[in-house]
Amino acid sequence: MKKPGSKIPPFAALFSSSFGTRREALSEKHSIPIVNDSFDEIVSRETTPESAPETAALMVLEAVVVEKVDNRIHGEAIEVKANERPEAAPVRNVMDTMDETSPLASQLASEHQRRERLSGRKLPRPNTTRYMTVSNQKGGVGKTTTTVNLAAALAIAGLNVLVVDIDPQGNASTALGVEHHADVDSIYDVLINDMPLADVIASCPDIDHLLIAPATIHLAGAEIELVSLVAREQRLRRALDVYAKYREAQGMERLDYVFIDCPPSLGLLTVNAFVAAREVLIPIQCEYYALEGLSQLLKNIEMIQKHLNADLVVSTILLTMYDGRTNLAAQVANEVREHFPNQVLQALIPRSVRISEAPSYQQTVITYDSSSTGALSYLEAAAEIAERA
């Protein structure tokens, strides 16, 4: 046992921002939710080494969870209470057994280094507004999640961002906390009724500099209504151009990024998004059928380039739902990087409980749990996109 004042392992200080991250990792490892009181209550500062109380709390949390997993009823949430501390693993003894080569220490040291690289980093403003359509015809790849979290990360960095939600499900609108019931003026009114975009845009309540043009259920019928309209493929592009001039006339700062969240299909809504954008961002799930879906998407983009928008380019590919425990995820990631070395971001978005939970609270993962690995990964991806400009 270490004596008071003795040297604490140098990685101990790295745990201070990682309590939520460790709980998330344990939840995923044991496939069961873990509910806990704050670590200050689980292990009081009076009974832990003064310089690293969080480290001790993390170790006690893991010891309690492992003990409970052995005895739990299948499907029952694990609740870690403040008065629970395994007698077999006293805090100071746990501290004595830790070393810098342990997997937990390595993981947290790596996350600390990643946060250090992002800390105080000022993202550059693009020379002109970047219009990016986020699209993948394969559903369930994290398209909307990617849209809202990249937008949030860039807005938090002080950049002016607009999200245009043209998916009838309206999930991007939900995640950013804006109303989008049937009576709300929405992007449907812009596309079908020629309503000015400025009249439907709302501000995200949680994040400054982040605007959204919400979707409503009326978009479900917009594909049919667009067929008979003049310049049906150009309507979103025209609305965005008019809005840019409106901001200039009002003396407002120009937008830095416009993200367009598409439905997982190639109908007229998605065609409008491709025509309005200059760049396509493709999220790809690290699973077997990823490249098959990507091939079809690229063929459709080529058709758009040939007939409707010659300036459109696939600028960014983001690997999502990456599970580092499986060989398949690594193989898919490597294969995508081999085929698209200049488009694939270095940042990987992991499978994450926090990313999945955030929309149910009408938040992005960055505002829901900024210390989580999911939030960190999206912040890295946003920084990479900004610096590529």
Automatic annotation (TrEMBL):
Positions of the UniProt region annotated as Disordered: 101-138
Annotated AAA domain residues: 130-313
Pfam families for this protein: AAA_31
Compositionally biased region (Polar residues): 126-137
Protein name (database record): Chromosome partitioning protein
Organism: Paeniglutamicibacter cryotolerans
Signal peptide range in chain numbering: none
Family: Belongs to the ParA family.
Function: May play a role in septum formation.
Source organism, top-level taxon: Bacteria
